[in-house]
Amino acid sequence: DAGVIQSPRHEVTEMGQEVTLRCKPISGHNSLFWYRQTMMRGLELLIYFNNNVPIDDSGMPEDRFSAKMPNASFSTLKIQPSEPRDSAVYFCASSLHRGDTGANVLTFGAGSRLTVL
Amino acid sequence: TQLLEQSPQFLSIQEGENLTVYCNSSSVFSSLQWYRQEPGEGPVLLVTVVTGGEVKKLKRLTFQFGDARKDSSLHITAAQPGDTGLYLCAGAGGYGNKLVFGAGTILRVKS
To answer: Which chain B residues are closer than 8 Å to A99 by Cβ?
Structure first.
């Protein structure tokens, strides 16, 4: 398996532009997570999906952020309009969650580094 | 909100030295994980601890979960330059699907 695949790896855009980040989870995994990492705030959970359904989006900063998972093999995180404070590395991670109290092991993608000028 | 505090934030040591990184919370976790992240990459899982008081060893790394399942430590013996990276602890509550990460400890091992 190629692991969790994210694109683009790097994006530089201007304030006000729409940004779409993409993620292909590991085949067979049933949970998908979007995290944002900055020096100031560390790794923050934005939203996660179980079986393609959004379960917890309490970490999404504001309405400018939206995430979708139309099928088990694809997810997008969209920022519209983008602002300089959105600059960060965005990680997608997937896991196979068994639905019990067992630990959930995340496999992360390499991240998408976003710079908003 | 479950919060995890890691200490120290930054550690710079010489090759061969020992070190301990701490992860503390006021919340109880059903499990706790340690990840290591290198520049330009995503975090990679090192270990998962589930039982209070559990100790796991991974070569020169020793991980311990507190008896009350609120804290954990990572001890590295005879650190090597290859150990350099960002070490993150992550806790899961309830049914374990949602992981909350600490801010991380940046470790630099000089040769």
So the answer is: 95
Mean pLDDT for the stretch of residues B24-30: 89
Q: What pLDDT, in 10s, does the model give residues B63-111?
A: 999 999 999 999 999 999 999 999 999 998 755 567 889 999 999 999 9
Q: What pLDDT is attached to residue A105?
A: 86
Give me the sign of the Cα torsion angle A25, A26, A32, A36: negative
Taking Cα atoms as reference points, which of A4, A6, A8 lies closest to residue A94? A4
Interface contact B3, partner A, CB < 8 A = no
Chain A hits for B10, CB-CB cut-off 8 Å, are: none
| A107 vs B contacts (CB less than 8 Å) | 45
Q: DSSP string spanning A30-62?
A: -EEEEEEEETTTEEEEEEEEETTEEEE-TT--S
The verdict on a CB contact (< 8 Å) between B98 and A48 is yes
B28, two tokens = 């109880």
